[in-house]
Specification:
The chain has 514 residues and is mostly helical. It has helices spanning 20-25, 50-55, 75-80, 94-97, 107-116, 121-124, 131-138, 159-166, 183-194, 198-208, 215-222, 231-248, 278-293, 305-315, 317-320, 346-354, 422-430, 439-442, 458-465, and strands spanning 4-5, 8-9, 89-90, 141-142, 147-150, 153-155, 212-214, 258-260, 300-301, 383-387, 390-394. The chain is globular. The chain starts with a strand and ends in a 49-residue tail after the last helix.
Length: 514
């Protein structure tokens, strides 16, 4: 047997350097989707490019690259170099949900949907989503930290946000299923769980060109089933409705018209549909969709955009929101707002966020909601979220201000394990109470509710590891040589003073020296 060297067999043949195409096939864990997506830009390339060359020691990007290691591939890096991107196309199915409503004649289907914990999704989805607003926030998302990098620090969508905005369960079993169905397997699943014929199943997956079915096909074949139908038909229609529901909401993909058949496995046993942590899976899936959309060549954003949009309305009410005055706190917070398309351009929203001040953020928006829905303990869980083959880190220690605590310098973000280690991930999740932040890790509460305080050294650290300003100053509306005058004023708070450099200076243009 040949000798082994570093875990590989060796031979007398010279080592061959991998080709560029072979290197590109070594896709990073974070860019593997739970199901195949027909969008060709779903899997961006990882080759070194001119942006990486410029941002090594360049002005404008992070000074310390130890955290945002892939920033050179980020859309914000391209924007800083003058390569702008149009607003993202949004995959939003809010209007489609109204095409299949459960009335009194379909009460048996509704009973199962209600037990699943997913019933709020039938009424709280926004029909309208704002492309400039969501695109601008996507430009601030960073995959290593799974947070938005704002001018004053990090923010993210937490499990508390999911529970308050959507009223779906955030505790329960972790959602797992096979990596990806083959078309033949998908056809068999449709026959078994939806009662279709082999011919119908094959024709539909062939039209989708993937192991998926169209949302329209589900409505056409099952929306006419009522309580007067047979038990089997009602069971098939219930599974079809739930598949349609999650395809329009939690797991909306960039096909914009279909849903992956693999999710049917979750509805095999209808008595168990209420046992899943739907909110945690939704959050993991949205994290991944945001990560994918940070690549410059990507043109679409999937995931449940009602969650993202409502989160923005809750935390930035003075900038973007339009409240519904008839709202009551017993309902999901997603219904608190009247979604609308803001008239601003993407560049205008981008510049507004660059100027954003701490005082304009609502750090604790659910104070009035706590009587109906207290803060869930699992919101303090620090670990991984999982949705099928998607595994994403969840870091509440990076956004302590959103829980009313003074923000400290967080530990380095961890890299999630491979999704094929599902048993270990599920065991970790099942013992989530052992992995919540301790009182010591949470630190001290803010002196004033909603003040957004941080320790004095936080902003100096954050300025080194982040990219706080997205729009290049020389391309800013009404740009003058005195670019510093348009920067956000953080000096009013001692918690936001940066040692030696109280502001990030956008006049530090890209160049060879720092």
């Amino acid at each position: 047997m040949p000798p082994r060297t570093r875990g590989r067999y060796t031979s007398d043949a010279p080592r061959r350097r991998p080709t560029g195409s072979e290197r590109r096939r070594r896709v990073h864990l974070r860019e593997v989707d739970p199901v195949p997506d027909p969008d060709p830009v779903e899997h961006p390339q990882h080759d070194r490019d001119e942006t990486e060359e410029v941002f090594e020691g360049a002005r404008g990007g992070p000074i310390d690259r130890s955290i945002l290691r892939s920033f050179h591939k980020h859309v914000a890096a391209k924007i800083w170099l003058g390569k702008d991107r149009a607003p993202l196309k949004l995959v939003n199915h809010g209007a489609k949900l109204q095409l299949w409503e459960l009335d009194m004649e379909r009460s048996r289907i509704y009973e199962t949907v209600h037990r699943s914990g997913l019933a709020p999704l039938t009424s709280c989805s926004h029909r309208v989503a704002s492309r400039p607003m969501l695109s601008a926030f996507c430009e601030r998302w960073q995959l290593e930290t799974t947070t938005f990098h704002m001018p004053f620090g990090e923010m993210t969508i937490t499990l508390d946000d999911v529970a308050s905005i959507l009223h779906i369960p955030v505790t329960g079993s972790m959602i797992s299923f096979p990596q990806a169905l083959r078309v033949d397997d998908a056809n068999a699943l449709l026959v078994e769980l939806l009662g279709t014929t082999d011919v119908e199943a094959s024709r539909e997956t062939e039209q989708c060109r993937s192991p998926s079915v169209r949302l329209l096909w589900l409505r056409d074949h099952f929306s006419t089933i009522t309580d007067a139908s047979s038990d089997d038909d009602i069971m098939f229609a219930t599974r079809a409705f739930l598949l349609h529901l999650v395809g329009c909401t939690l797991f909306a993909d960039k096909s914009a018209t279909s849903v992956a058949v693999v999710y049917l496995e979750l509805f095999r046993d209808l008595s168990m549909v209420g046992s899943y942590a739907w909110g945690a899976a939704c959050l993991a899936y949205l994290y991944r969709q945001l990560t994918t959309a940070t690549r410059f060549e990507v043109r679409q954003l999937g995931g449940y955009l009602t969650l993202l949009q409502a989160w923005i309305y809750e935390h930035f009410p003075e900038m973007f929101s339009s409240p519904d005055m008839s709202y009551t706190e017993s309902r999901p917070r997603a219904l608190r707002w009247r979604p609308h398309v803001i008239p601003d351009s993407l560049q205008s929203v981008r510049e507004r966020l660059d100027r954003l001040q701490i005082s304009e953020v609502c750090w604790e928006p659910y104070v009035d909601h706590r009587a109906e829905h207290p803060l869930p303990d699992i919101a303090w869980y620090s670990g991984c979220l999982k949705c099928g083959q998607v595994v994403e880190p969840y870091h509440p220690e990076r956004v302590l201000r959103q829980f009313g605590y003074i923000q400290t310098i967080p530990p380095r973000p961890f890299t999630p394990p491979r999704p094929d280690r599902s048993i270990l991930l599920e065991q970790y999740w099942e013992r989530w109470t052992d992995h919540v932040l301790t009182d010591q890790s949470r630190g001290r509460r803010c002196h004033y509710s909603g003040s957004g305080e941080s320790v004095p050294e936080y902003m100096a650290w954050y300025d080194r590891i982040s990219h706080r300003i997205v729009q290049p100053p020389q391309l800013r509306s009404g740009f003058t040589t005195d670019a510093r005058s348009s920067l956000p004023s953080h000096a009013a708070s001692t918690s936001d003073t940066v040692c030696g450099d109280p502001f990030f200076d956008p006049t530090r243009l890209v160049g060879p020296n720092r």
